[in-house]
């Protein structure tokens, strides 16, 4: 079993360490990811986040964030993939002083892109800050080139027109013109983060569509989709009975089963 230090050296030798974020701030590099077969099963669900939210409720898991808090920059998109994470904080020094001192830009998302695998979803936590941009067009260009499925930003983004032109899926709390350079720094990568009131850990499954974002803990991923598929089959059967205009006495048992 490799250590984090060995994994770091392996990725560095492969040219996958950008190097702007100190090594000690990277908490995980390799971790278990959900299989593509399971991801495709989720993507096949029509009302995706509403279905996932219902099952998470039944499991007693806080895992859904409404689009009221995390809005898609483009509607009509659906994203499912394993989470990779960044936690940011506001810099102590003023941006002007950072420019004067020629500081390094410590908000880099590029480090996480090169640590990620195709199909991953970046989850960035800046505490819901609506003023400062977490990422813009150039960052999303790198993300798309590296094969990420999308980004969920608990904070703001900028270059909205460019991001839409790139056709790169992004959910965020808001949009701003103000750069994050010399204003925020990456405190931790691939550690636990927060989306509104939901905890996210690397490897958890991120599910996002027009209704919002859901986080399925890794250990529950298979069970959640199994339940969703079973409910969909039951509802399709019930819908068929309704269209056949069967008597209510035949319909009631199916509704009791669904809502009991």
UniProtKB/TrEMBL annotation:
Highest rank taxon of the organism: Bacteria
CDD domains: RraA_family (cd16841)
Keywords per UniProt: Magnesium, Metal-binding
GO molecular function list: 4-hydroxy-4-methyl-2-oxoglutarate aldolase activity; metal ion binding; oxaloacetate decarboxylase activity
Residues that hold Mg(2+) according to the record: 159
EC number: 4.1.1.112, 4.1.3.17
Binding sites annotated in the UniProt record for substrate: 158
Quaternary structure, from the entry: Homotrimer.
Family the entry assigns: Belongs to the class II aldolase/RraA-like family.
Task of the protein: Catalyzes the aldol cleavage of 4-hydroxy-4-methyl-2-oxoglutarate (HMG) into 2 molecules of pyruvate. Also contains a secondary oxaloacetate (OAA) decarboxylase activity due to the common pyruvate enolate transition state formed following C-C bond cleavage in the retro-aldol and decarboxylation reactions.
Protein name in the entry: Putative 4-hydroxy-4-methyl-2-oxoglutarate aldolase
Species annotation: Arthrobacter nitrophenolicus
């Amino acid at each position: 079993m490799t250590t984090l230090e060995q994994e770091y050296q392996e990725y560095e030798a492969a040219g996958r360490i950008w190097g702007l974020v100190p090594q000690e701030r990277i908490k995980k590099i390799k971790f278990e990811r959900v299989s593509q077969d399971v991801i495709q099963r989720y993507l096949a669900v029509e009302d995706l986040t509403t279905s996932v939210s219902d099952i998470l409720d039944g499991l007693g898991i806080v895992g859904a964030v409404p689009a009221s808090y995390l809005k898609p920059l483009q509607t009509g998109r659906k994203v499912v993939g394993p989470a990779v994470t960044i936690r940011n904080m506001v810099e102590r020094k003023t941006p002007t002083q950072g420019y004067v001192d020629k500081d390094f830009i410590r908000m880099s998302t590029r480090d996480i892109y090169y640590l990620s695998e195709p199909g991953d979803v970046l989850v960035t936590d800046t505490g819901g800050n609506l003023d400062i941009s977490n990422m813009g067009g150039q960052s999303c260009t790198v993300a798309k080139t590296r094969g990420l499925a999308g980004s969920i930003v608990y904070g703001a983004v900028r270059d909205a027109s460019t991001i839409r032109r790139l056709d790169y899926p992004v959910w965020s709390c808001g949009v701003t013109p103000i750069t994050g350079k010399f204003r925020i720094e990456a405190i931790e990568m691939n550690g636990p983060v927060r989306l509104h009131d939901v905890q996210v850990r690397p490897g958890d499954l991120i599910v996002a569509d027009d209704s919002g974002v859901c986080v399925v803990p890794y250990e529950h991923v298979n069970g959640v989709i199994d339940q969703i598929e079973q409910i969909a089959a039951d509802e399709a059967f019930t819908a068929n009975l309704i269209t056949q205009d069967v008597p209510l006495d035949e319909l009631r048992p199916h509704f009791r089963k669904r809502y009991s």
